[in-house]
Amino acid sequence: MSLINPTEFDDLITRHRQSSDILWALKTWHHPVFDNKEQSIKSTQLINKTTQISSIITPVHYKTLPRNSEQIKFDVLNSLAVKHTIDSLNIETAHGYDQAKAITQEMSHRLNIRTARFLAFIFAKIFNQVYDNIYIDHHGMDLIYQMYSLTPRNSSPALPSSPITISSTLFAILNTFSRSSSPSDDNLSMNTLPSPLTSKHYLTSPRIIYLPTHRSYMDFIILTYICFEYNIPMPCIAAAQDFLGLGLLANLLRNCGAFFIRRSFRSDLLYWTIFDEYVKTHVINGDYPIEFFIEGTRSRTLKTLLPVRQGMLKSCLECYFRRQVDNLILIPITINYEKVLEDNLHANELLGVPKPKESKGGLLKAAQILKKSFGKMIVRFSEPIYVHDAYEMFKLNDEKRTNDQPDAFNRSVPRTLQPRSICQQDAFTDAEQRFTDELSYRIVNEHQSLTVIYPITVAAFTFLSTSNNRSVSIDQLLTDKKTLFLDNTGVTEHFSSHYQISWPVENERNCLKQRLLTIYSDVFECTENNHLTLKMTGDRFVDAALLMKLFIYRNTCLHLFAKPAYILLVCQANSQVPISHEQLRMYYHFLIQLFAYEFVYDRFPTDDLNDKDFDQYLSHWIKVNYIIPLNNSTYKVNSQFRQQISLITSPFEQYARAYLLIYEQEYPSSETNLSLLIKIYQKALLSKLDTTNLISVLASSSNVISNALRTLNFNTKSKAYVDLRHLLTNLFQPMSTQLRAKL
């Protein structure tokens, strides 16, 4: 943990305010990926330089790249998989081709630098207006530069090795012929770079896949904006088809690399095949980097949405499993917003208000936000995940677990022309599916490890620690910040030592108060005694939405405390009677499984009760005197630290009691559709909504209801339902009785 150090970041807002946005948008584009019409003199010189076999990654590889939109569509439509699907569906060839052409036309992007320049200028104006700072991680950008550069810097870590494949070998041979026919350049020496056979270069251009968090509509724009800023290839972005309702803006986004896909198309085999081929042709040919959101949709809660959506990731991984590419480079990106543009919409949607459709009229209404300040945006890049290395490591670990000697080229599943939708069960081997599951969890774990803590997070913790906390002093905020992020770094850094705190002038009370009042003027106001108080109106739904916003901002850091806080929570719930070591461990693992969809842990949750972290967390709480060990391996909480313990455990206690409240509702046993179940439960809970009770508000969230219901094993739902309710009631019986009487 550390405070944000501005010297480790580029501030795009400060830079742009000191220069002309129009001149910046019209700057010379130096990267040789783009077509000759857009290439600068410098790019042309780079392409014409002598290519050396010792530097396989050179601009020469991009002479015929990238394919334009029409070429990509042509390749997709003429792929064997699409033709096979049309034949297998018994569609008349001409009619099937027309259907496929219409789908491809609707889906495809038309990425071009001219539109990128126009949108860069527009969004430079917007960003300068609504954000105080946009910080970009130096280290992350350096890593991306290294992937595209001719000469990796000595300070950078060595690139992982990749397998030598037929495609890469052929490319090396062709590259050699290209070198012999190219004009010589006396300034280039054969000793400039080491041989790729001794260094760990890739033999083809890097297949980069960007995987950002998804909290706001701004996520679609910011990475393309950054790529334009830093002169690196702009990505193709997977966007929902809903955005086609934005008219002109949808066309602009398409021309900036967005390709539009339906939210659900499992039953449409032709659409699935075209989507699958469209993604794969980008990965295999290396035209552009790909950007998609592994959560599938915006997280209204500012927490990672679990389980992650693996469809697009599987399409990319299949290219590697088929040995169609040497490697894939996955780059998780965490976009940290001090204030999310749509936080009002998020809160309302969680309380059951339908999501407004993307439309031109809605876009015009949203223009009002340009008058507000949304603080900082901090973009942080994770260390790249090299799929080849990750898979090799997975196979080694898997071999140790099973004590079997795996086949290094295990391809027992036929890699036929059939898309996964036709032979879904046989698409990946069991090992490949387990690897995909682990890789997916690793990606979201990397997202969470780069969290930035803003003052609103601490304020939300403080205001929500008790139901009657409606006024808080600035001194109390500083005390709670110390308790959460300074006194207990031993447990928070166990999840990640890379999270950072963005705070106004260190412990300067007036700056802190003014920032909260300025950015969150819809949430806080200042009283005569200089305390912050919530802007409660007396309207039940409006007040619930305000409290929901606080829940949302508190969520941003709960993953740091989740597992260690479970130990404190169990001891606190049994504060009248000491709890045994066995009981404490049992409830600790129960809470891990209960909240498996709610929080991202440091590693994938399993049923293994020999969790070594348990003893480490327990030792920490004993060391700081929050828990007192008694005789015969029993423990109790230290009453002298009850306030600090309550601050840490209150979020998880509220979630547990919210789950219990959900499970106490009448269960519609005849309904099995999860979406309908969520609506049934939410309607019942909203009818009893009480804004003086935080648990009532939290339990009314559609996301909490969804996660609570997903936790149930639907194959044995009645038994799981009874067991979960029984354990929660045993743990939180007193409050359960009060809630039942009140609600």
TrEMBL record:
Pfam families: Acyltransferase (PF01553), GPAT_C (PF19277). It is a peripheral membrane protein. InterPro entries: GPAT/DHAPAT, GPAT/DHAPAT_C, GPAT/DHAPAT_LPLAT, Plipid/glycerol_acylTrfase. GO terms for biological process: ether lipid biosynthetic process; fatty acid metabolic process; phospholipid biosynthetic process; triglyceride biosynthetic process. Residues 208-338 form the Phospholipid/glycerol acyltransferase domain. One of its GO terms (molecular function) is glycerol-3-phosphate O-acyltransferase activity. It comes from the Eukaryota. It is found in: Endomembrane system. CDD domains: LPLAT_DHAPAT-like. Keywords: Acyltransferase, Membrane, Transferase. GO terms for cellular component: endomembrane system; mitochondrial membrane; peroxisomal membrane. Signal peptide: none annotated. The keyword DNA repair does not apply. Belongs to the GPAT/DAPAT family. This is Phospholipid/glycerol acyltransferase domain-containing protein. It comes from Adineta ricciae.
